[in-house]
Design brief:
Length: about 270
């Protein structure tokens, strides 16, 4: 990819920040690219309940589908897998999983997809506003505002929809601390590196000056494929530490943000 949007005169005005994650320090950082569900938002209980509602709705028509579908969602035996399909998959990917089990009941594929989509719409009515059920983790608002105060640019890249991201930020008064956000209702979706490249072009920054912070292997892949400086794995939502992460955070307060230098051009 040719980074025609990035010219040296623009980069020289970019505020550089140091980000310290426990004992690991990243210098000359211009932006953090945040995951939402499981990283910014405490969404695990909500997603488990949503998986149950969707599976139960389909079970009214196909009684044998509930148990295997819940397992496919990553919610078997009343447990919730933070690395499972419900946690890291897009809505479309979850619909396709449900349609696969419907097709196994003898339905044609096109009809199976339609039935899955209708069931998702019906069950989702029980949760009129996702943001109400997925508050930010404690200390996350403070951390985002700290980043804003230090001049760090912040982006939210999520497997959720763009509208849901915007509603979450608005609901908890976080939108002023975030410069850009994008969901996965249409390509590119995580871990497609184009998500990062598009955000970087919009903000006139380079991936090499960005960190990705998230709770899943998909976030790790997003950072690696896009050429970001590093990937920070977070476990405060119950997700396991991701192997190969450049740093691991157990609590938001373990991430410290401060100005390193500012190569602002001098006025003539």
């Amino acid at each position: 990819m040719v980074w025609t949007a990035f010219v040296e005169s623009e980069l020289s005005r970019t505020l550089m920040v140091t980000v310290r994650c426990r004992d690991i320090t990243f210098e000359n950082i211009t932006a953090i690219l945040w995951d939402k569900d499981g990283t910014l938002a405490d969404s695990h209980q909500f997603l488990r309940q949503l998986a149950e509602a969707r599976s139960q709705t389909l079970a009214h028509q196909f009684p044998n589908i509930r148990v295997p579908l819940m397992a496919a969602f990553g919610c078997a035996d009343g447990q919730y897998d933070p690395a499972g399909l419900m946690a890291v998959g897009t809505r479309y990917e979850n619909e396709i999983a449900a349609a696969t089990y419907i097709a196994a009941q003898g339905k044609p594929w096109a009809e199976a997809v339609s039935l899955a989509q209708l069931a998702f719409v019906e069950s989702d009515r029980s949760f009129t506003r996702k943001a109400d059920f997925t508050p930010p983790f404690p200390e996350i608002p403070l951390l985002l505002r700290k980043g804003q105060q230090q001049g760090l640019q912040q982006v939210v890249l999520s497997g959720d929809t763009t509208d849901n991201i915007a509603d979450f930020l608005s609901r908890y008064n976080l939108h002023q601390a975030v410069d850009s956000w994008a969901g996965s209702e249409a390509p590119p979706v995580k871990p497609d590196p184009q998500m990062v490249w598009t955000a970087c072009e919009q903000l006139d920054i380079l991936p090499d000056n960005c960190l990705v912070i998230g709770d899943s292997e998909v976030d790790h892949q997003l950072a690696s494929r896009s050429g970001c400086r590093g990937f920070i794995s977070v476990t405060w939502g119950g997700s396991p530490a991701i192997s190969g992460a450049d740093a691991v955070l157990e609590q938001p307060q373990q991430c410290q943000i401060g100005i390193l230098n500012s190569n602002l051009e001098k006025e003539a």
